[in-house]
Amino acid sequence: MNGILHPLTSERDQNHRLETRGGSFTLKLANPSEPLDLTEFQTLALVHTAREAPDLPTPRVIPACDGRLVIPTAHGALRLLTWLPGTPLAHVPRMPALSAAIGRALGRLDTALAGFTHPAADHHLLWDIRNAADLAPLLPALSDDLRPRIETFLDRFRAQVAPALARLPRQVIHGDFNPHNLLADPADPTRLAGILDFGDMTLSHRICDLAVAASYLIEPSDPLSLLVPLTAAYRASAPLGEEELRLLPDLITARLATTLAITAWRAMRYPENAAYILRNVPASRAGFEALASRDSRAIADHLQTACERAAP
């Protein structure tokens, strides 16, 4: 296949848009430090999802001429995926209808992934909410005014949230349903046209996937305005138990704390890429402060009531 390569922004990998006479594709070269089995895990998850939920807008894997889906090279594992056109949700106004569309898509994706297994699925990922207690070494990179608040929250996470989370259902999750990884249809901004970047997939607790998506939809002045339609739509597409709902507000806060800690640490280590690394920080800090100052139990009760009302 011949074409023209156009570099794409990426934190770890080298990604390019490949323009050919037959159309556009995404050429992905994994970071050389990433184990091959992790790349294979992510690739086979895409294949599984395309089979289980063919109408979900996920990239399709294009096999090489010899049938291989992943080609190891000295510079990292190489893959070719279909190109998904659309507008990143980061550039689309947030509204309840779009929040509901995100919830429906994530619920359907988690339902599709529930039956997927792979030997590399259960790997440690610091971004995974269940590992929030491991953030301690990164906290010195935070600003002096923010660090004590996150330390206080993480103390409560270790003592109360983590033990309850350990009892909840586990499965392979997408792990990074953020507005830069989701595309909207330009003709209808409330319809999802693409679900990208399966690079943070891991075996975790199902509710963590919803918490990640929710962390990007917290309106500081009214946290429930987008959280309610997101959660109700998710529950209509995937299982969501009472205990999962009870923990959801704290898990969202934990994800926001994770974003703030990891990005501060990474920006300090890689100042040349700081603008990209810190792109979600203002919204994450506003969301963290909004949730940390509210009663998580009251938020959970409100979500439970809203889901019950929305149930058919």
Brief write-up:
This protein has 312 residues and is an alpha+beta fold. Helices cover 44% and strands 16% of the residues.
Provide a descriptive summary of the structure in words:
The structure is a single chain. The protein has helices spanning 36-52, 96-113, 147-165, 206-215, 224-237, 242-269, 274-277, 281-292, 296-310, and strands at residues 4-8, 14-20, 23-29, 71-73, 76-82, 87-88, 170-173, 182-185, 188-195, 202-205. With 312 residues, the chain is an alpha+beta fold. It has a 5-stranded antiparallel beta sheet, covered by helices on one side. Helix 2 packs antiparallel against helix 4 and helix 6 packs across helix 8. The protein is globular and about 55 Å long. It starts with a strand and ends with a helix. The mean pLDDT is 94.
Q: Sum up the overall morphology in one term.
A: globular
Radius of gyration over alpha carbons? 19 Å
How many beta strands in the DSSP annotation? 10
Return the structural class.
Answer: alpha+beta
Helix and strand string, N-terminal first?
Answer: EEEHEEEHHEEEEHHHHHH
| Average pLDDT, all residues | 94
N→C terminal distance: 49 Å
Main sheet properties: 5 strands, antiparallel
The share of residues in extended strands comes to 15-25%
